[in-house]
Amino acid sequence: MVATINDVAKLANVSKSTVSNVFSKKKYISPELTEKVLAAAKELNFQTNYFARTLATKTSKIIGISFEANENFNSQFQLNIIKGILSVCAKQGYYLLIEPTGKGRDDYLPMDGMIKLNPSTDEQVFDTVPHVWVGLPPENELGQVCFVDNDNQLISQELTSMMSRKHRKIVYLNTYENTTVAPERYKGYLKEINEKKLDNLHFYTPKDALLEDFAYHKAKELLLLDNPVDAFILDSDLMALAIYKLASELDLQIPEDFSVAVFYSSINVNNIFKPELTSVDLNEYELGKTAAQLLIQQLQSNELIIPNCINISGSIKVTSSVKI
User: Fold this and answer.
1) Which of 10, 12, 247, 263 matches a 20 to 30 Å C-alpha distance to 72?
2) Which residues form the HTH lacI-type domain (predicted)?
3) Which domain holds residue 169?
């Protein structure tokens, strides 16, 4: 015979509501009582009825994560964000549901709230469940959505400023223009090179191109000029892999012939770069953690959290791939 919540309450010598709160985590239950309830549930092989609890509480305890997983999907960066989200959800008793199309299909999936990663310039705000974005919303959605982000414009300006100490022809190979982060980083680059009166050598990755393929061919074109460029700022380590390969093919040395820095490099691949790659620590774990905290605050208060924008600081890790 299948054990019920009443059976667990009787064996643990507690009320039915105490058993319910242990499993739903809606109210605080002392560690001692929680241990008694869990021990009784284990002895009776009790399993909570998820769908019954959802109907009764009108909450699924599920948070959705929406992002577009395409061939240029930077899995390590997104994974670190998701780890941060998971760390908060695990403590608060929430499940995670991955929605990898990037369409934010919150209209029929059983979610209490949604976290959107890496928004594009044509993104629209979800209107059926509370939501938080990791990344800057499109301009027409600002003020309507709570979001967490780095100050990408400032980081880009600082990265360009560092490069300009020893270099005059600084190329910036950016990601796709339809991402909201790309124009922000371009603004920082443009501000710095205008102040230093340098040439604007910024290029967006074409819509249908792979990041590494675009970086390889554009860099080759620029390095074979009569007056070649002497520094590259890149979107990610995917581009850097292509540039390092190209340097070897052209018998060029980094940083003697040109310097290289990236906005993001995953820790588990950085040790393959010789010389070690200069990169920005974007604190992606903290981005995810903060986004989850903000969303759960909204779910518990039923109000938009103010301020509706939180900046997570990033820091440049300067290594031997840059001449400074």
Assistant:
1) 247
2) 3-57
3) 152-281
> Model confidence over 259-305: pLDDT tens digits?
999 998 775 555 678 899 999 999 999 999 999 999 998 888 766 66
pTM score: 0.77
Q: Are 115 and 106 in contact, with CB atoms under 8 Å apart?
A: no
Q: At what angle are helices 16-24 and 31-44 packed, to 10 degrees?
A: 100
Q: Cis peptide leading into 183, omega within 30 of 0?
A: no
**Three-state SS annotation for the chain:** CCCCHHHHHHHHCCCHHHHHHHHHCCCCCCHHHHHHHHHHHHHHCCCCCHHHHHHHHCCCCEEEEECECCCCCCHHHHHHHHHHHHHHHHHHCCEEEEECECCCCCCCCCCCEEEEECCECCCCCCCCCCEEEECCCCHHHCCCCEEEECCHHHHHHHHHHHHCCCCCCEEEEEEECCECHHHHHHHHHHHHHHHCCCCCEEEEECCCCCHHHHHHHHHHHHHCCCCCCCEEEECCHHHHHHHHHHHHHCCCCCCCCCEEEECCCCHHHHCCCCCCCEEEECCHHHHHHHHHHHHHHHHHHCCCCCCCEEECCCEEECCCCCCC
- Residue 244, CB half-sphere, CA atoms under 13 Å: how many? 18
Question: Cα 311 to chain center, whole Å?
Answer: 13
Pair (161, 83) in one structural domain: no
Tens digits of per-residue pLDDT, 160-199? 999 999 999 999 999 999 889 999 999 999 999 999 999 9
Q: How many domains does the chain have?
A: 3
Query: Does residue 94 lie within any of the structural domains?
Result: yes
Domain shared by 159 and 208, yes or no: yes
Residue 3, beta-bridge partner list: none
